[in-house]
Design brief:
Low-confidence stretches: 1-41, 289-293, 829-842, 857-871
Keywords: Cell outer membrane, Fimbrium biogenesis, Membrane, Signal, Transmembrane, Transmembrane beta strand, Transport
Subcellular location: Cell outer membrane
Shape: globular
Distance between the termini: 10 Å
Protein name: Fimbria/pilus outer membrane usher protein
InterPro entries: Fimb_usher, Fimbrial_membr_usher_CS, FimD_plug_dom, PapC-like_C, PapC-like_C_sf, PapC_N, PapC_N_sf
Number of strands: 52
Strand content: over 45%
Structural class: mainly beta
Mean pLDDT: 80
Organism: Paraherbaspirillum soli
Helix content: under 10%
Radius of gyration: 34 Å
Largest sheet: 24 strands, antiparallel, barrel
């Protein structure tokens, strides 16, 4: 009775679709008995099972005889070359005849884009750009192309010898996109009000900080401006503009051209701000193995504190942090080197200051690659506004065989001249090291001159087997007469004010992290700076350990800093953290500060909503010799930006802070408000699709016009943008909800998703005589795109349909095996004719029936009559 069954894949439908119990039971028995016989070979499905219990005649189901058939059409696929994801692309699938699976149409230019060396194989080199290659024999020995319909992946397997030579992570420049013309503005507004009482007096103060980062894109050109307004407790406000510049990338030179305010690289000379013109290489265009480095800042806050980071006198980062340890690892330093000054301001006004060292790692280039910089302009500093000497700067480095990279540079100014040369060496398993020597001659306006040398050694190593990362170990020694360019400018400023000047003598710094497997991890960061003519030293040490056991996380951190003052800062903190569910945790910490006082702190923190766009933190602290305090903070990341609110209350003081951050973008399609835009971004347009979310982007939703700005894309890398299918509103369907883009630096890309508007309906399709259409018949729209299959008793689920749509139903190859439906959607009253589908949790409108008519049906050639059958 049972013939060997074929695999049939049915699209997700509402639960209203059903199979008669007797037919379903028989099908399950056959599937259980013959399960091992399921194969990819052609098999035959007994259609009689679908007619048990009086079902209608069935359609021709031979399409499923070979398993999951791939029909001709366009499909969105993920392309994997030798197992590595390359891109997502829409490919046409073609079939020589209806009896065969359609195969992907892959052309020789596509293979070249995916890294195949097509020029080395005559058949591919001579192939027409529009001609599909034979997927079974593409002209390369042992190469093959296969398609996995169940995962929609195109698997391309090519021997490594047939691939183009490229570094790991390299992306073809033909995929880089410059984006559209647009204007943008990022803002961050921090407001704080503090009240203090002492000796019967009350004092109230207000502070404000407004950070602005705006720009305009015109083709490959980027105009950017960075400014900040800061009003201190004394009520005085000051505007400070750090960078205003225009830039563009130069692909042929693997570099960037910048005109205006920017900064010099710090690989050879210490970096500094300037105003002028710069042409330099951009390592972000290189593969992943050559990415840049930025320091990680760690510290501990006792209350809802403000953390301010300065570099060379300019504020480059400010944020509010909750009580407890904090980590800042998303810095975008304005200079390639130059120590960072970190100030932690507590709610009661106490400040903790320390210096975070920041230097370049060893200078290494791949064999045959160049790193260059040419800059002309005037020096700029937030400390010495009057001193702006002009200068010329040039640096050059080239990679040679055996992992050797020689480098050097010249820096010329009216009162300063310096030359440097050195080499970096890749030591293989021993790491990487660079050694260079600089000579400098400087003079002051009063005629004093001096010269000297500076020797620098840098080392970095990542020990993969032991999970040890020695990020940076550096040592520099300078003779008494040596000045860096920044020190020379500072010396002239000190001379103008008759202040003593101390130039740097020796410096040592290092950063180490070690993974201990199941035992946790440790980190160590240290630096020491000494000066000529001054006995005091600048020291910084951070040491920490963290681990977990059965959900309980624990850690111990020690911070020490001394900027040369009479009293160094020391703090030892021990913390425990316990999860209270998927989105909440509690922690307890104990600390000992510089004065020897013991303190403790209890925190309750977590997130809310499915995408965790709301976060909160409530804490209470106190201890021996310390006044008790309570702190609470709330952060909400919405579609239009981020809002942070904090409140601290203690003995004799209280503080409230509010932070608003977001962005605005204007382009040819209109103006869109959103989250902080970052440097590189994409505009997502979904016509008629408001309120649609973006995967992995908490709080981000399309606005009323179906537009959203996706911020913080990575330049020159594949960026995946995927719609959150669960957020699609009723009546909106998106065929391809995933795309990949490769933006250039600072680009604004425009990404459109094709959406169809309509209603979801469950309709009973019948012929002119009122009989159900055959089970398994295919339903197509006016463009020939398949929309559904007819279910049992003619019941069919349709999505994105509208009143008056014309549908074509086919159940065979003959002309008579088809008919057309003029879909008429009745106006449903509130709650009438609507049901909630358990499969996709959306409203589905039920239509009693729809008549399918055609000339053949009118002539009496209706589907075969339904005959009762008994098992």
């Amino acid at each position: 009775m049972c013939k060997q069954p074929a695999r049939i894949r049915l699209a997700a439908r509402p639960r209203a679709w059903r199979m008669r119990p007797l037919a379903l039971l028989c099908a399950l028995v056959c599937a259980t008995a013959l399960g091992p016989a399921w194969a990819d070979n052609n098999v035959e499905f007994n259609n009689d099972f679908l007619e048990l219990g009086g079902a209608s005649a069935t359609a021709d189901l031979s399409i499923f005889a070979a398993g999951n058939r791939v029909l001709a059409g366009d499909y969105r696929v993920d392309v994997l070359v030798n197992g590595a994801h390359v891109e997502a692309r829409t490919l046409p699938f073609k079939a020589e005849n209806p009896e065969q699976d359609a195969t992907p149409c892959v052309t020789a230019p596509m293979l070249a884009e995916w890294g195949v060396n097509t020029a080395a194989f005559p058949a591919l080199a001579a192939a027409d750009a529009l001609t599909c290659v034979d997927t079974k024999d593409i002209g390369i020995p042992d190469a093959r192309i296969s398609y996995q319909p169940e995962t929609q992946k195109l698997m391309v397997s090519v021997p490594q010898a047939a691939m183009q030579r490229s570094a790991r992570g390299a992306i073809d420049q033909g995929l880089w996109e410059q984006g559209v013309s647009a204007a943008m503005l990022n803002y961050q507004l921090n407001l704080a009000q503090a009240e203090r009482s002492y000796n019967g007096h009350q004092d109230s103060s207000n502070t404000a900080y407004l950070g602005l980062r705006g720009g305009v894109n015109l083709g490959p050109w980027r105009l950017r401006g960075v400014g900040a307004y800061n009003r201190s407790e004394n009520g005085r406000g000051q505007w400070q503009f750090a960078n205003t510049y225009v830039e563009r990338d130069l692909h042929a030179l693997r570099g960037r051209l910048v005109a205006g305010d920017s900064n010099t690289p710090g690989a050879i000379f210490d970096g500094f701000q300037f105003r002028g013109v710069q042409l330099s290489s951009d390592d972000s265009m290189l593969p992943d193995s050559m990415r840049g480095y930025a320091p990680t800042i760690r510290g501990t806050a006792q209350s809802n504190a403000t953390v301010t980071v300065r570099q060379n006198g300019y504020v480059i980062y400010t944020t509010y942090v909750a009580p407890g340890p904090f980590v800042i690892d998303d810095l975008y330093p304005m200079s390639g080197s130059g120590d960072l000054q970190v100030v932690v301001t507590e709610a009661d006004g106490r400040q903790t200051k320390y210096t975070q060292p920041y230097s370049a790692v060893p200078t290494l280039q791949r064999e045959g690659l160049w790193s260059y910089n040419a800059t002309a302009g005037e020096y700029r500093s937030g400390y010495n506004g009057r001193q702006r000497p002009r200068f010329l700067l040039g640096t050059l480095a080239r990679g040679f065989a055996h992992g050797i990279t020689p480098y050097g540079g010249l820096l010329l100014s009216p009162h300063y001249q310096s030359a440097a040369f050195g080499a970096g060496i890749n030591l293989g398993n021993a790491g990487a090291v660079s050694l260079d020597l600089s000579h400098a001659t400087s003079s002051t306006e009063r005629g004093a001159s001096q010269s000297g040398q500076s020797l620098r050694l840098l080392y970095a190593k990542s020990f993969r087997p032991s999970s040890t990362d020695l990020r940076l170990l550096g040592y520099r020694y300078s003779t008494p007469g040596y000045r860096s360019f920044s020190e020379s400018v500072a010396e002239q400023a000190a001379e103008d004010h008759n202040r003593p000047f101390y130039n740097r003598r020796g410096r040592i710094e290092g950063s180490l992290s070690q993974q201990l497997g199941s035992l946790g991890s440790v980190y160590l960061s240290l630096s020491q700076q000494t000066y000529w003519g001054r006995s005091s030293k600048n020291n910084m040490l951070q040491l920490g350990y963290s681990g977990s056991y059965k959900g309980l996380s624990y850690g111990i951190n020690f911070n020490y800093s001394n900027d040369g003052g009479s009293r160094p800062n020391r703090e030892l903190t021990f913390s425990l953290s316990l999860p209270l569910g998927d989105n909440a945790s509690a922690s307890l910490s104990a600390s000992r500060d510089t004065s020897g006082q013991l303190g403790s702190q209890a925190n309750l923190y977590g997130t809310a909503f499915e995408d965790r766009r709301l976060s909160y933190n409530v804490s209470a602290s106190g201890g021996a010799g310390q006044d008790a305090s309570v702190n609470a903070s709330l952060s909400y990341l919405g579609a239009k930006g981020r809002v942070d609110l904090g409140r601290s209350q203690g003995v004799g003081y209280s503080k409230t802070n509010l932070s608003l951050a977001g962005g605005a973008l204007a382009y040819a399609g209109g103006v869109s408000l959103g989250q902080e835009l970052g440097e590189t971004m994409a505009i997502v347009e979904i016509p008629g699709g408001p309120g649609i979310g973006i995967e992995s982007r908490p709080g981000l939703r399309t606005d009323g016009s179906g537009t959203a700005v996706v911020p913080n894309l990575t330049p020159y890398r594949h960026n995946r943008i995927a719609l959150d299918a669960a957020s699609l509103p009723e009546g909106i369907d998106v065929k391809d909800g995933v795309t990949e883009v490769v933006p250039t630096r600072g680009a604004v890309l425009l990404t459109r998703f094709a959406a169809s508007n309509g209603t979801r309906v469950l309709v009973t399709l019948q012929d002119a005589g009122g009989k159900p259409l055959p089970f398994g018949a295919r339903v197509e729209d006016g463009r020939g795109i398949e929309k559904a299959m007819v279910g049992q008793d003619g019941e069919t689920f349709l999505s994105s349909v509208n009143h008056g749509d014309l549908l074509l139903v086919r159940w065979g190859d003959k002309a008579a095996d088809s008919c057309r439906v003029d879909l008429q959607l009745p106006v449903a009253s509130e709650g009438a004719g609507m049901q909630r589908s358990a499969d996709d949790n959306v409203s589905v409108q039920r239509i009693a029936n729809a008549t399918c008519v055609s000339e053949q049906l009118a002539g009496g050639q209706a589907p075969a009559d339904n005959k009762d059958k008994k098992s």
